[in-house]
Amino acid sequence: MTTSHSASRAPAQAGNALPPDTSELEMSLAAVELAIATLGHTLTRPDIAAIEAASTTLHDAMRAAMNSFAQVARRGTMPLALRTRFAMANGQIAAQREALFRATSIVEQGLEILIPRPMAETSVYSASGASQRGPGRMIAAS
């Protein structure tokens, strides 16, 4: 009787491929989504250590999700809903990276205004620049 039960399951598994188990990937993806949200919140505070920790957590969560994604993909077809969530997470990370790059540029520009870099001695606008420049040419207006 046991053999007929297992025999009845065998054709169903062979004929209809079961979708791969995605529970590990779903948990990994949820960890990535949480890490993205945490990093986004942390970036609004002036706590460098917390930002570094949140960034590391996101990096680790993303690495684990990529491993889970590869395992599920090897076992079968990836469900569309998970592909969409994964693509959304990648888009959110790209948006955060772009926002961070812009904020860094603004800070660097502000620092450049507050603390200008010393000009090279060969610059025209430096203290010794006028003597190195030469007399120049006068053009008479006619």
Topology:
Layout lengths: L1 H14 L7 H20 L5 H28 L4 H35 L14 H5 L9
Characterise the protein shown here.
It is elongated, with a radius of gyration of 30 Å. Helix 2 (23-42) packs parallel to helix 4. Residues 1-18 have low confidence and may be disordered. Helix content is 72%, strand content 0%. The protein has a domain at 20-118. It contains five helices and no strands. It has 142 residues and is mainly α.
Instruction: Compute the CA-based radius of gyration.
Output: 30 Å
What is the H/E string?
HHHHH
Overall geometry comes to: elongated
Euclidean distance between termini CA atoms = 116 Å
Number of strands: 0
Helix content: over 70%
**Structural class estimated from helices and strands:** mainly alpha
Strand content: under 5%
Largest β sheet strand count, sense and barrel closure: none
Low-confidence stretches: 1-18
User: So how many helices?
Assistant: 5
Mean pLDDT: 76
Name the features.
142 residues; 72% helix; single chain
What can be said about this structure in brief?
The protein is mainly α and 142 residues long. Helix content is 72%, strand content 0%. It has a domain at 20-118.
